[in-house]
Amino acid sequence: MITKAxxxxxxxxxxxxxxxxxxxxxxxVKQDTIYQRGEVKILRDKVxxxxxxxxxxxxxxxxxxxxxxxNFGDYKEAHELKSxxxxxxxxxxxxxxxxxxxxxxxDIKDKMISYEIEHGWLDPADSLLFEKIELHSYExxxxxxxxxxxxxxxxxxxxxxxxxxxxxxxxxxxxxxEVILHHIxxxxxxxxxxxxxxxxxVHPVSIPLPVxxxxxxxxxxxxxxxxxxxxxxxxxLVQKDGVAFLKAHDNIYIANxxxxxTFEEINGTEVIMNATPLDFSIxxxxxxxxxxxxxxxxxxxxxxxxxxxxxxAPTGLGAFMEPxxxxxxxxxxxxxxxxxxxxxxMPFLLTVFFFxxxxxxxxxxxxxxxxxxxxxxxxxxxxxxxxVLVITLVNGNKNxxxxxxxxxxxxxxxxxxxxxxxxxxxxxxxxxxxIRLFANISAGHIIVLSLVSLIFIFKTIAIAxxxxxxxxxxxxxxxxxxxxxxxxxTLLSALFFxxxxxxxx
Length: 505
Fold this sequence. Notes:
59% of the residues lie in helices and 10% in strands. By secondary structure, the chain is mainly alpha-helical. Strand 8 (263-266) and strand 9 (269-272) form a beta hairpin. The two termini are 45 Å apart.
């Protein structure tokens, strides 16, 4: 019987999990929003402190502005100068994310100085101020870039849009679709949180996972995902035995000869055309599968040992697990398969029931080592459904195959129509299993994150109580769905097995 005290404790745990869950989702939203704004946006609050001191050179500045305006007088020339500047900016960004920083940084610095002198943006005499600067890290390059961009802004230079920094410019709009898809997707690392350093740079903290790649004619490559340094935009190059890898949108690509990604516009969308290695990495979902198998194996081996030679009523974990096992046997397997044949299917039915249930519940816990959207991954549900199909076909008796290829009571001239229909029916059953589990679990995560996203869409904390209340309701509903989907998948699997082994009447 559920007492009042038990109800209060359960409600308290649900509220606590909801608060943690909402905090985790909000962190994901914050992280993706930061990535969407881009690194150059950091300059907004830093311009004043990074601008060079031109207080003693007012006349020089005015002369330079006049020269700049003269250079930009002709539209065609201005366009060419802007294109050159954009190319230089790309090279700077590559240096920022290159591992060979010390070798390239000062070359980039000298190239920028020469470029600005060439176009009249910087006096040769003033360039001596920069020549004494030595750059040894990506922070040094970013700071130097900020100084130069701040100087151009100070002088009124028309710089490329992605480098332009104007006080009060509008922030990039929050894109909830991007955040949601990023959250439910698989990943090569476990993101924990972000922190901001003293100069305003945001650094993510995560637990790296093993990357295992196979490239034809090159062999197997293994390294930790931390070598990408949290990059997911194809900027950081990881070189292993003559092969260079880039990571973009949680996919790993083989870099082209220039060490970059190759893009091609297809139907108005930029598509990455680089070759991809065979990826056997231990991603979040792969880790969740291994963890759940380990937990299930440990629990059932322990229970088997406790039952060995023990005629007493089970206690502890056994008292909790026994009703579930009996439920699968008495309410799922026997009614749908029959008392004579159910036993050989019980190992699979028990495994798939507890595997789906455990991973559904683990996906609701938003911190490491849980939080993976494993049963909301179409690949995982496809494999589970394929196993059901294989077991069904392997165990199908004569009566089962007769109903497919020679349906009783159907005229022979209708068989060419009925056989394809029956085959489609055989394939559609596991297909429905796959889509049902994938869609229901994914939908729960999407709705929860959508509710949290309302806070960022309306840009007010006033909406938070409403969002949290609905998230709490959805979390309770997702717990119900976790059990329900495990039950439905197991029930329909047993039903298909029963149909395949049913004897002719």
